[in-house]
Amino acid sequence: MKEAFYEEAGRDGKLVLLDFGAEWCSTCKVVDKLLEKAMPGLERRLLWVKVDVHQRSDLAERFGVLSVPTVIVVSPQEKVLWRRSGTFQLRELEAALHKAYY
After folding, report:
1. How do residues 60-87 score in pLDDT, each as one tens digit?
2. I need a surface site. Which of 9, 10, 46, 73 has the fewest CB within 10 A?
3. Which 8-state DSSP code applies to residue 89?
4. Domain containing 60 — which CATH number?
5. Residue 55 pLDDT > 90, yes or no?
6. Which residues form the domain of 58?
7. What's the whole-model pTM score?
8. Total domains, the chain
9. Which among 86, 19, 22 is positioned nearest to 48, based on CA atoms?
10. What's the rounded Cα separation, in Å, for the pair 98 and 41?
């Protein structure tokens, strides 16, 4: 069954940013703060979906998530366009989005 967020992203012309994490993960909180700061400038291109790996182990398994945090940008057709585990620089995400859109 296709996740509802894929349909929402496709309808709105956005990519999906899957933010895999866990409540106990301190590095996940760092990545979330980075994304919170960045989203006002990115929300027209990205639908941010926070995924708790304990609550959605099926989704984590589907994308082969072995550690958190893992951030994956996918198309509404579920094609993986960019993936990072651990921390990253915002410019890496912006470069991936530029490549996906242009």
Report:
1. 999 999 999 999 999 988 899 999 999 9
2. 10
3. -
4. 3.40.30.10
5. yes
6. 4-101
7. 0.93
8. 1
9. 19
10. 13
